[in-house]
Amino acid sequence: MLVQIGYHMGMIYSAPSGLSYLWNFGSLALLSLVVQLFTGIFLAMFYTGHVDLAFDSVEHIMRDIRLGWFVRYVHANGASLFFAVVYCHIFRGLYYGSYYLPRNKLWISGVLILFIMIGTAFMGYVLPWGQMSFWAATVITNLASAIPIYGKSLVVWFWGAFSVDVPTLNRFFALHYLFPFILTGLIALHLFFLHEARSGDPLGLSFSIIIDGIPFGFYYIIKDLYGFIYYFAILFILVFYFPNLLGHSDNYILANPTVTPAHIVPEWYFLPFYAVLRSITDKLQGVILMLLAILILILIPLVLNQLIETNFMPTSGAFRPCYELLIQIFFVSCIILGWIGGNPAISPYIEIGFDSMLVYFFCLSYGIYFATIYQFLFSPLFLKTYNKFDERTYYKGRRPWDLYSIYFRVEATARYFAGVPLADC
Predict the structure, then answer these.
(1) 267 in active site
(2) Which is catalytic among the residues 199, 279, 356, 405?
(3) Cα–Cα distance between 385 and 395 in angstroms, integer?
(4) What is the per-residue pLDDT across 403-424, written as a single tens digit (0 to 9) for each?
(5) How distant, in Å, are the alpha carbons of 210, 289, 410, 419, 423 from that of 392?
């Protein structure tokens, strides 16, 4: 039974014929998870979750365990590659409109995966118990104190003591070990939604699989293997030549609660969200905006599916200039926020970070909304298509927003391939 399911999902699953290498990032993310699971289980065998022994246990893995240095560097740099691949996967989905019906559940499950990934990576960053690990745990857990009335009690409950200590480290270790298996379940759900809704394609045409679908296994597995070669090439270059390039040198200093680092910096993949947090002087508002910077991605399909295009207009940004420009601006704002997050909280970085944060939220809210409205109402493709079919009688007596309804899209698709004119609806 399981073999049949795997064969159907991995080999004969119908996929569009025009998928580019940008669709490799999904399989690369799955590969990254497998690498992190295997290396993490090995590291957990030798790690000690105690504030007096954690730092030494990591050094023991690096110096005394055979190939321990290799496994640890693969795990540390593999986490960075995991986030890099996932961020590319998200930007590809944004650009090509992968959040539209029927792929809205697929998109929302992907955002939840990102949320769990961030929590898992943060707790893993604390485990080496260096200076950056300790102070990152102190700063981030203290954010809960911004919650009115119960904030301080909640922080003490997180810590399990009156400061970041043995119970905190033990809890982070246990959760860091547990969360990847929750992540695996979410990814299985993500794959289920993918096979239920089918893959999108660079053209953004909802009926492309019906026209030119091809078996996934015989065409795209080779393409994925080609991507795996590049993935491992980059990973091994980092491991063998630049193992500490993406880390911080202060984390090779044993955690000292009495000495605060001059500049507390999280890992690079947290920097945009860290910049959003620091852009607001009020702690509670900063925490809310930081969480909203992730969760706002869930709102995109919920809002834009109310404006979903007709079957004769592609969802892809390649055919929507306004939307394409907006995604490019959003990408630049993320890069600037990442740069700001790695700099001290002084002028002019604070002002630049605040402006970039405004651009970030505008692009994911009103920007995408207005770009979609503009494309739908003024697209020459739309006007030409409906002049060609001359089906104006279809809209007589109907509400104006029926034009963008998912029900019209499904109905129009079925009748288009059946050769039935829309006027007969």
Answers:
(1) yes
(2) 199
(3) 15
(4) 444 455 556 555 655 666 555 5
(5) 27, 45, 18, 17, 8
